[in-house]
Amino acid sequence: TTGLPYTPLSNGGQQSVTINGMPTSITVAYSDPTNSARLPDYVRLDFSTSIKTVYDTWEWRLYLDIVNLLDIKNVLGYNYDVNYTHPPSPQYDLPMLPYLGFEAKY
Q: pTM for the full model?
């Protein structure tokens, strides 16, 4: 699917304020127009398989699940530094995660 829309932030500069009677300056971030940019395309393929057998009164199941089989680094959003002076760093979704399991029912 196409990437989700998001609102980028940019450095608005320093602004003088008074905190507890002490003059100080803070960095102000300005946002671009709402949803004016899109995250990169999101692609993920999951895989799941299992085998089940019955022995006497027991039911056995062995399964394998793999999340993000292709191990694609999907961007979920961006992290900005405290002063908004450096380019935002991407925050990624889960890497490939294999799950192997065994289940027994009586």
A: 0.70
Other Cβ atoms less than 10 A from the Cβ of 75: the count is 16
- Cα dihedral: 76, 81, 87, 92 (round 10): -20
- Show contacts of 95-100: CB within 8 Å, 24+ apart: 95/68, 95/71, 96/66, 96/67, 96/68, 96/69, 96/70, 96/71, 97/66, 97/67, 97/68, 98/64, 98/65, 98/66, 98/67, 99/63, 99/64, 99/65, 99/66, 99/67, 100/63, 100/64
| pLDDT tens digits, one per residue of 11-60 | 777 888 888 888 888 888 888 899 999 999 999 999 999 999 999 889 99
**Residue at 82: amino acid letter:** V
